[in-house]
Amino acid sequence: MFSVEFISQHRVYDGILYFIRHDSAATQSSMSASIFVPDVAEVRTDAPFPTLYWLSGLTCTANNFTEKAGAYRKASELGLIIVAPDTSPRGGTIADDEAHDLGQGAGFYIDATQVPWKPNFQMETYITQDLIAGIEANFPADPKRRGISGHSMGGHGALTLAMNHPHLYKSVSAFAPIASPSRAPWGQKAFAAYLGNDHAAWERHDAAILMAKGMATPFDDILVDQGLSDPFLEKQLMPDLLEQAAATAGQKLTMRYHEGYDHSYYFIQSFIDDHIAFHGERLR
Amino acid sequence: MFSVEFISQHRVYDGILYFIRHDSAATQSSMSASIFVPDVAEVRTDAPFPTLYWLSGLTCTANNFTEKAGAYRKASELGLIIVAPDTSPRGGTIADDEAHDLGQGAGFYIDATQVPWKPNFQMETYITQDLIAGIEANFPADPKRRGISGHSMGGHGALTLAMNHPHLYKSVSAFAPIASPSRAPWGQKAFAAYLGNDHAAWERHDAAILMAKGMATPFDDILVDQGLSDPFLEKQLMPDLLEQAAATAGQKLTMRYHEGYDHSYYFIQSFIDDHIAFHGERLR
């Protein structure tokens, strides 16, 4: 689980973007990920370097973020490594569903307890254990300076993994997260399939509920950006529940609403620099 | 030909990206394009604004550049409109070829004289007449301040259209252009299909040959970026022929080679800011 296979690489913005595969014990399969390593991390002697983990949304693979987010200019400037894993295990022998919001491409960053998902859909353990182990064994990534961010389903993943594993991550932010999946159709469908009727488990993977219980307090601030023309705003994302929970918990939350912006990577590329800077400052 | 149909729009980097369709007399079909209009062009009173036309490469549509180039941050900063048209007419009644380098997605920015391409594949006339007319009738784009750039097949298009229509464009640049298509397999295949054996016509669409004849001299400088790990460098792109031609013609050419960079949009996104600034300065 510590070795990685290098699939391809691209030079980009004074750094190198690697596409890798590596075997995961958690998902019992070979997982895809991308890793951007800025030149400064290769040539400077003060390695290891801070690392931002990016969790993508429904239907994404390890390379939507790499092509569309425009994140690497700022990451090079600040000397930040960025890791973007796939959103689920994949392949012919892995369970799947024809829908875009369940199965391959829709792992929801949780450990499934139900058939047919349980053997491979162990995304919480994959992201928090196997991915970190594989990255830190092969790249100059600092185990003491990890941040996590993501978009939509990945925003949910970033918030909940950070809250459930605060010892792993020093900074957390999100774009248009599914703020309370146990109250949103996407989350309800996925949680029912992956977790069954265990509603205590549902709550453990619901950012707004976790935050209301004060489990986010290890973070000095959480940055969330949300477009006001996002078609999923009211029914699926519900950022107001996150705001209410933060107020209840006394957790500082910098929630920024943006007139006119939607749910696409056009929205992400418009504000990614601010998130890179937010993590860069906290991981310095 | 002056009316456009608005298909969709996205807010991005303090501006709006519109996807449109409009009827072209040249291609006798409905053409797709994207237009980024920065807010400054909407609110400032000193309209109209400088406009950069971006021509994409083989297989691209009107939205590869929009998602992958990361161009709009700098365009917003400088108040530049960016127009990215499709690479050919498209649809069920339009002639096509199964290959990726001929037919739909591969118009090569020339006017075809041969069947079955002649009725619709009139991309030179489309880009230089119908596209400009449609854009300038519907957006605050300044007819006196147009620049043109592009990638690969679109780099060839930018160079040759600028040289053949210097009254239309005040600035020109390219990423990894097919510098001498009449000497490259991609160009030879396309020119034979679209232009037949008329080798005078081939020369009119070959940037290195045009430049060697001194036809590029209206431009104070031409910026070209080329990755040294580009797999098409030697057989298809041949930037050395452009450099020789520029020396012969006394045309200033800023040819920048970049160690490690390939032919992808990772290369483009790494240097797009420099091109936006190059055009911004000349179109100010």
From TrEMBL, chains A, B:
Protein keywords: Hydrolase, Serine esterase
Keyword Hydrolase: yes
MF terms in GO: carboxylic ester hydrolase activity; S-formylglutathione hydrolase activity
Catalytic function, reaction form: S-formylglutathione + H2O = formate + glutathione + H(+)
BP terms from Gene Ontology: formaldehyde catabolic process
Active site: 152, 230, 263
Entry superkingdom: Bacteria
GO cellular component: cytosol
EC number: 3.1.2.12
Pfam family name, one: Esterase
Family membership noted in the UniProt record: Belongs to the esterase D family.
Function: Serine hydrolase involved in the detoxification of formaldehyde.
Family annotation (NCBIfam families): fghA_ester_D
Protein name as it appears in the record: S-formylglutathione hydrolase
Originating species: Asticcacaulis taihuensis
